[in-house]
């Protein structure tokens, strides 16, 4: 089985990540520098750069374990639920649930034969998508995959029943009905409005038996995955050891995986690096300068590089305090020297990063243009003028501005597990904003609480994290939706506007790619004007991988296929 979904990724400063459907693609190589990789001074890898050490299956051992790290213990495994968007949990779910599509090196989706015989648009007016399911595909409770699963997922995610605390996945609200097709393994999905990114819906597919009531949807996936349908199932959850172990499912109807098991171990970034060098895990991110420096000459290591959809940004919370004022948010944008923060992130790496000018496209994607304008340029005097206009009194160098007797003070929340690089970036940001009279407190919180108790709940003024694998443009929509009550979807900064929602609605319902790109770029320019998020840079995928591990590594835009990953003989 191929896993094609990685979900939205929220990552502290340059590490923590939320998930979004996406994929990456392999290219030849066994760890040596490729074009755009460490060893090639550039702005980053090419759009299809990947390195997974591709090997024929007959050259791999039958058995063995792949040991990897995750950044925190997973509490919510429903990756469609508002508290379940953390990237590591989403990756585990994608391993054990049906990923209907896999992604090639260009990020193009293709049906996975183990689940789908076909999936295609069978009518355009209205738009109808017909899925023909593999009749061998079954859930771990014995039930066959059917239209009931699609129907339950649609009802949970279309937004009509607010008791389903959905993370706001786009496309489901555009569906008018889901019904059984002519055959028992056929599913007919009829859209009220066209949806160009229809392949991202129902991927992964969740079981109706664990999804068809709000209680099951919201609470049935806490601390566990109740039902699976994959080459893999969860063998154990060990909260004491902080490990989740996936094992082969003997009831799997497809190709048998080469590995016996995949172990996920919760470790902070520094501990993960030490664990890798101590041969306790089999790969680790090497994008941080100190990490790259420690692993690049390790004789048991292959450095593998890919061009993942992966961006680092700063989220501004417009739902509380001074940042409710647009002028203050715009002042923060102007007071941040994005180039300096990017230099810190790429310090001592063999390629240089560049500030990112778009929220929807990466620089190596067709459609990218820099829409940041005046809000992406460092302009300290401009920031001061905006704060003057907003009524914040300048009290001189080294002193925070005040208004009605209150200081202009903001909280920048970071994980206690942050790396030294992240701490350096936080301090640099603190110093930048101080020049404009904005006092920043750096508040460290427990790593396991970072998302669940702070980011998701809006208990911050500023946070920095990553969004990853947003290969479908419409995936970004939940980040800009207007919150409804306690459900903020994925708009953790609670900043939106009717114009922005209208632009994104039009963009996701047009099937003309050129027109869609135009609308998304118009929306992007508005995101900058709203002071929603400050884009910093695209984060290259640089991994230190244990030599001998094949068909796995820096996949770039392609999907990871854990049935083919394994150890060379």
What does this structure look like?
This protein is of the alpha+beta class and 569 residues long. Helix content is 22%, strand content 22%. A hairpin with a 5-residue loop joins strand 4 (101-103) and strand 5 (109-111). Helix 7 (338-346) runs antiparallel to helix 9 (420-435) and helix 11 runs antiparallel to helix 12. The longest helix has 18 residues, at 513-530.
- Rg over alpha carbons: 23 Å
| Fraction of residues in helix | 10-25%
| N-end to C-end Cα span | 22 Å
Biggest sheet overview: 5 strands, mixed
Number of helices: 12
Quantity of strands, as a count: 24
Query: Could you tell me the mean pLDDT?
Result: 89
What is the SS-derived class?
Answer: alpha+beta
Cross-sheet strand order for the largest sheet: 1-2-20-15-21
Write down the oligomeric state: single chain
Strand content: 15-25%
Shape designation? globular
Contiguous uncertain segments of 5+ residues: 1-15, 19-42
Looking at this protein, list some descriptive labels.
12 helices; disordered N terminus; alpha+beta; 5-stranded mixed sheet; about 575 residues; 4-stranded mixed sheet; about 20% helix; single chain
Summarize the structure in short.
With 569 residues, this protein is α+β, with helices and mostly antiparallel strands.
Ordered list of secondary-structure elements with their pairings:
Elements: E1 5-8, E2 17-21, E3 65-70, H1 87-96, E4 101-103, E5 109-111, E6 116-124, E7 127-133, H2 147-157, E8 175-180, E9 186-191, H3 214-219, E10 232-238, E11 243-248, E12 261-266, H4 269-277, E13 283-285, H5 289-295, E14 301-306, E15 310-316, H6 326-335, H7 338-346, H8 380-389, E16 402-403, E17 406-407, E18 409-415, H9 420-435, E19 439-445, H10 450-455, E20 462-468, H11 498-509, H12 513-530, E21 533-538, E22 541-546, E23 549-550, E24 566-567
Parallel strand pairs: 2-20, 3-12, 18-19
Antiparallel strand pairs: 1-2, 4-5, 6-7, 7-9, 8-9, 10-11, 11-12, 13-22, 14-22, 15-20, 15-21, 16-17, 23-24
Helix pairs in contact: 6-8, 7-9, 11-12
């Amino acid at each position: 089985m191929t896993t094609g979904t990685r979900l939205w990724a929220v990552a502290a400063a340059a590490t923590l990540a939320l998930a979004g459907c996406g994929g990456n693609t392999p290219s030849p190589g066994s760890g040596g520098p490729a074009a755009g990789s460490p060893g090639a001074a550039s702005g980053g890898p090419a759009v299809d750069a990947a390195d997974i050490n591709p090997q024929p299956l007959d050259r791999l051992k039958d058995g063995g374990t792949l040991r990897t790290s995750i950044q925190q213990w997973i509490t919510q495994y429903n990756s469609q639920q508002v508290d379940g968007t953390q990237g590591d949990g989403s990756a585990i779910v994608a391993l054990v649930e049906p990923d209907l599509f896999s992604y090639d090196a260009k990020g193009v989706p293709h049906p996975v034969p183990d689940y789908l015989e076909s999936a295609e648009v069978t009518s355009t007016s209205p738009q109808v998508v017909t899925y023909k399911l593999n009749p061998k595909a079954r859930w771990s409770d014995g039930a066959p995959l059917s239209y009931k699963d699609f129907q339950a997922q649609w009802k949970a995610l279309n937004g009509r029943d607010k008791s389903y605390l959905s993370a706001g996945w786009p496309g489901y609200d555009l569906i008018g009905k889901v019904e059984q097709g002519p055959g028992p393994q056929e599913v007919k999905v009829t859209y009220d409005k066209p949806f160009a990114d229809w392949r991202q819906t129902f991927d992964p597919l969740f079981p109706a038996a664990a999804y068809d009531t709000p209680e099951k949807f919201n609470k049935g996936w806490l601390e566990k995955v109740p039902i699976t349908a994959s080459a893999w199932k969860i063998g154990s959850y060990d909260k004491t050891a902080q490990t989740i172990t996936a094992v082969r499912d003997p009831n799997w109807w497809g190709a048998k995986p080469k590995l016996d098991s995949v172990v996920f171990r919760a470790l902070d970034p520094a501990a993960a690096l030490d664990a890798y060098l101590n041969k306790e895990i089999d790969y680790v991110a090497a994008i941080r300068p100190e990490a790259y420096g420690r692993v690049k000459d390790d004789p048991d290591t292959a450095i593998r590089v890919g061009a993942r959809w992966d961006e680092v940004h700063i989220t501004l919370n417009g739902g509380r305090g001074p940042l409710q004022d647009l002028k203050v948010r715009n002042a923060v944008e102007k007071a941040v020297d994005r180039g300096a923060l990017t230099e810190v992130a790429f310090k001592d790496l063999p390629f240089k990063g560049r500030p990112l000018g778009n929220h929807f496209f990466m620089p190596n994607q067709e459609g990218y243009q820099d829409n940041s304008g005046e809000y992406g340029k460092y302009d300290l005097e401009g920031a001061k003028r905006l704060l003057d206009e907003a009524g914040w009194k300048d009290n001189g160098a080294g002193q925070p501005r005040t208004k009605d007797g209150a200081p202009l003070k903001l909280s920048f929340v970071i994980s206690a597990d942050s790396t030294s690089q992240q701490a350096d970036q936080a301090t640099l940001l603190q110093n930048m904003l101080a020049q404009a009279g904005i006092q920043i407190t750096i508040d460290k919180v427990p790593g396991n609480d970072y998302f669940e108790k702070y980011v998701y709940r809006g208990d911050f003024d500023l946070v920095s994290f990553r969004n990853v694998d947003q290969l479908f443009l419409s995936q970004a929509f939940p980040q800009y939706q207007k919150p409804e009550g306690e459900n903020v979807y994925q708009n953790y900064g609670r900043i939106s506007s009717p114009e922005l929602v209208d632009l994104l609605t039009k963009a996701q319902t047009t099937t003309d790619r050129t027109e869609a790109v135009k609308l998304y770029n118009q929306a992007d320019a508005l995101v900058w004007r709203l002071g929603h998020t400050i884009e910093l840079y695209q984060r290259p995928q640089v991994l230190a991988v244990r030599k001998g591990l094949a068909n796995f590594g820096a996949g770039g835009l392609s999907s990871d296929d854990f049935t083919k990953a394994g150890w060379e003989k």
